[in-house]
Amino acid sequence: MPVRLSKIGLIATIALWLALVAFGNITDYGSNLLFVQHVLAMDSIFPGASIHCRAIHAPLLQHAAYVSIIVAETLAAALCGLGFWRMWRARHTSATTFHRAKRIAVAGLTVGLLLWLGGFMAVGGEWFGMWMSTQWNGLASAFRFVVVLLVALVYLGQRDDELDH
Fold first, then answer.
1. Cβ atoms within 10 A of the Cβ of 46, count?
2. pTM above 0.85, yes or no
3. What pLDDT does residue 165 have?
4. Which of 27, 35, 129, 141 has the fewest C-beta atoms lying within 10 Å of its C-beta?
5. Which pLDDT score, from 0 to 100, does residue 125 have?
6. pLDDT < 50 positions in the chain
7. How many CB atoms lie within 10 A of CB 104?
């Protein structure tokens, strides 16, 4: 039971964390919009870089990218929250039932990984050259998200023993 409770607590905490990230981006839209705009505009990467042609300067597309980020954050938080609830309700059930209850949380962690690994590290970091920017470089933060979500995904994916009644 302690391992199940630790998995439930971990997912609850991650759901809270992701919800706070999404809430912050919704309620303080302009702060991180500025970050997204600079990354997409590629205005702080090395001046001689040959990838400047990839830049996106259209405000509509920049807003669309930022809204997509917020939607993905919100979806990841909601799925982890729902996963927490299903795991909590299944905490006294068989190992198979509890393992099935983790599926929604796994989906939430996966959405988060796709966002921060695929969106921030791959697309932002490599395609838009965010790694070249000293001011608008979010790779360290994205890496932190990826590590936490990936470790949680691995831990959550471990099978649980049957409960001793």
1. 13
2. yes
3. 55
4. 27
5. 96
6. none
7. 20
Name all contacts of 51-57 with Cβ < 8 Å and 24+ positions apart. 51/127, 51/128, 51/129, 54/127, 54/128, 54/129, 55/128
**Count of other CB atoms within 10 angstroms of residue 64:** 12
What are the tokens at 74? 């919100």
Instruction: Using alpha carbons only, give the angle 70, 116, 21 rounded to the nearest 5 degrees.
Output: 40
pLDDT digits over 96-126, tens only? 999 999 999 999 999 999 999 999 999 999 9
Query: Which of 56, 54, 58, 63 is closest to 34 using CA atoms?
Result: 63
Q: What is the rounded CA–CA span in Å between residue 28 and residue 40? A: 19
Residue 136, CB half-sphere, CA atoms under 13 Å: how many?
Answer: 22
Sequence-distant (6+) residues with CB within 8 A of 4 are 87, 91, 98, 160
Q: Are 33 and 66 in contact (CB under 8 A)?
A: yes
Cα separation, 100 vs 55, in Å, equals 43
pLDDT of residue 139: 96
